[in-house]
Write a structure and sequence with these properties.
Strand order of the largest sheet: 11-12-9-13-14-15
CATH class of the largest domain: Alpha Beta
Largest sheet: 6 strands, mixed
CATH architecture of the largest domain: 2-Layer Sandwich
Number of helices: 21
Distance between the termini: 60 Å
Strand content: 15-25%
Helix content: 40-55%
Shape: globular
Bound molecules: zinc ion
CATH superfamily of the largest domain: Reverse transcriptase/Diguanylate cyclase domain
Number of domains: 3
Number of strands: 15
Structural class: alpha+beta
């Protein structure tokens, strides 16, 4: 028998969500990656955050306990192995304590398996029933007279954040990047990229920056935008994009995308690896995990290249989080649909290689358009709600998205608006181009007419409107069919479709 110990972060989404600020979420997401990649490249460059302490703790148990080379490369999990079960367990507990010392608010679980092989640990019934398991819960807030953290409001404040003048708890303090973002990228450009070292809080951005740089002979050293206002100011893909006249270049879009059907896929692959116990099936399980990560990274890179203008001096994408199959990014509003379409198309192409050919994994996204000053915490919450809608809509069968335009629709998901699939979007490109060509006043008038509660009145008013404004005809027939004006009423589903296409068309730019 061999001992296998997994030390892993649990309840990660809740943990990330303790902080409503973007820096807090980014910092925490990156710290989890750093902390679980102690023998990999990410452990470099996080010295100031104390990550090497985790590595040092492990060193004290070597060579009796080593990193399990067979283990799957799962973000947020360290796998150990040893012939000495007691030592392995002890090392696991020591690592967990070290992680908790660095990130006091996270939950860490240590599981010990005594099995003939690593593959055997993956079997159904075994994975859920380790020989020993211990969970380190977040420390409770025990001293009620203490001032609460200004950021999370859940733990006692202990550190001053000089930039904002606020007081934060030890966990939020760890999440702050020690290098201001403005200083990071000049340093990256001057040095050989591979030597620059990873900086917590900017991992996703650094990765994308380097990938873009590597795409261009001689490098393409783009600046990173200073803030959301600067990102929103970046021009549309086409200089003649008509939306300029009403957008005033102050809108952006935040997109949260996540894969569907991957849980089931991994469960099947794990079961196979456990039942036949061969090196090949373990390899294919590892290849699946790696393949999904690479597919997502490629979709992000290709979507970024698709919205990169030749004359751009800045990176038009701010990636906040990129881990496994999920991505959280912000882009200029007028480049958002092009970005999303490419992202979903590339994901679809790449995901086709995995799982059941009739039903490969898919990708869903929530997308929020708003003024750049709309708080990022609210943007992220709204994208999460929309992402859930989009996922539910396709139930893993197809690529889907749901959107809200805060300025046009209000700050919550629109009642009655169904999510769209990528196929629907691709079928509607002509109609959306027609929507873009409509004057803003025409769109507003149509919207007002469609709010009439009487389906017959809606139809009559719209028909009358088209005779006065014939330029709106291609748009309406694109949605309702060529003979729509012969009908006597406009039913709620048709009405919704016209309203939704108007909303989507606001930031559409081919
Ligand atoms: Zn806090």
């Amino acid at each position: 028998m061999t001992a296998f110990v997994d030390v892993g972060f649990k309840q990660v989404q809740e943990y990330l969500g303790r902080s409503r600020s973007l820096w807090g979420r980014r910092g925490a997401s990156d710290l989890l990656l750093h902390a679980s990649d102690i023998t990999g490249s990410l452990s470099q460059g996080a010295d100031e955050l104390g990550i090497p302490r985790i590595k040092k703790t492990l060193d004290e148990y070597q060579p009796d306990v080593t990193v399990n080379q067979d283990a799957l490369d799962i973000d947020g999990v360290i796998s150990l192995t040893s012939h000495d079960s007691a030592k392995a367990w002890e090392a696991g507990l020591a690592l967990a304590r070290e992680m908790r010392a660095l990130l006091p608010a996270c939950t860490v679980e240590v599981s010990l398996y005594n099995q003939p092989s690593y593959a055997a640990c993956l079997a159904p019934g075994v994975a859920e029933a380790p020989s020993s398991r211990l969970t380190f819960w977040p420390r409770p807030y025990e001293f009620p007279l203490h001032k609460l953290c200004d950021e999370c409001g859940q733990s006692g404040a202990s550190h001053d954040l000089s930039e904002t003048g606020s007081q934060v708890c030890p966990d939020c303090w760890q999440r702050c990047s020690r290098t201001p973002r403005g200083q990071l990228f000049p340093a990256l450009k001057k040095s050989d990229s591979s030597q620059a070292g990873w900086r917590s809080g900017f991992l996703a951005e650094q990765r994308l920056w380097m990938a873009i740089d590597a795409q261009h002979a001689g490098g393409r050293e783009l600046e990173v935008v200073k803030d959301f206002a600067a990102l929103a100011k970046m021009p549309a893909m086409n200089d003649d994009a008509v939306q300029h006249r009403f957008s005033e270049d102050n809108h952006l879009a935040t997109i949260f995308a996540d894969g569907n059907g991957l849980g089931g896929l991994f469960a099947k692959a794990r079961e196979r690896a456990a039942s036949d116990g061969t090196g090949e099936s373990l390899d294919s399980l590892r290849a699946l995990s790696q393949g999904i990560k690479e597919a997502t990274a490629e979709a992000l890179l290709k979507a970024t290249l698709k919205i990169l203008r030749d004359d751009d001096a800045q990176l038009p994408v701010i990636p906040h989080i990129q881990g496994g199959d999920d991505v959280l990014v912000t882009v200029p509003a007028l480049r958002a649909w092009r970005f999303l379409r490419t992202f979903l198309e590339v994901s679809q192409e790449r995901y086709a290689a995995f799982g059941d050919p009739d039903r490969p994994p898919t990708m869903s996204a929530g997308i929020v358009f708003c003024h750049h000053a709309f708080p990022i915490g609210d943007q992220v919450e709204l994208t999460e709600q929309l992402l859930r809608q989009a996922k539910k809509h396709v139930q893993g069968n197809g690529m889907s998205f749901a959107w809200a335009d805060v300025t046009w629709d209000g700050p919550r998901p629109v009642t009655g608006r169904p999510p769209w699939t990528l196929d629907e979007l691709n079928q509607q490109t002509q109609t959306l181009n027609a929507a873009v060509a409509l004057p803003g006043s025409t769109r507003s008038s149509m919207r007002t007419m469609l709010s009439d509660p009487d389906p017959v009145a809606r139809q009559t008013r719209l028909r009358h409107f088209v005779t006065r404004m014939p330029e709106s005809a291609p748009f309406l027939s694109g949605i309702l069919g060529a003979n729509w004006s012969r009908g006597t009423s406009l039913d709620p589903a048709e009405t919704q479709k016209v309203l939704d296409t108007l909303s989507l068309g606001r930031w559409w730019s081919e």
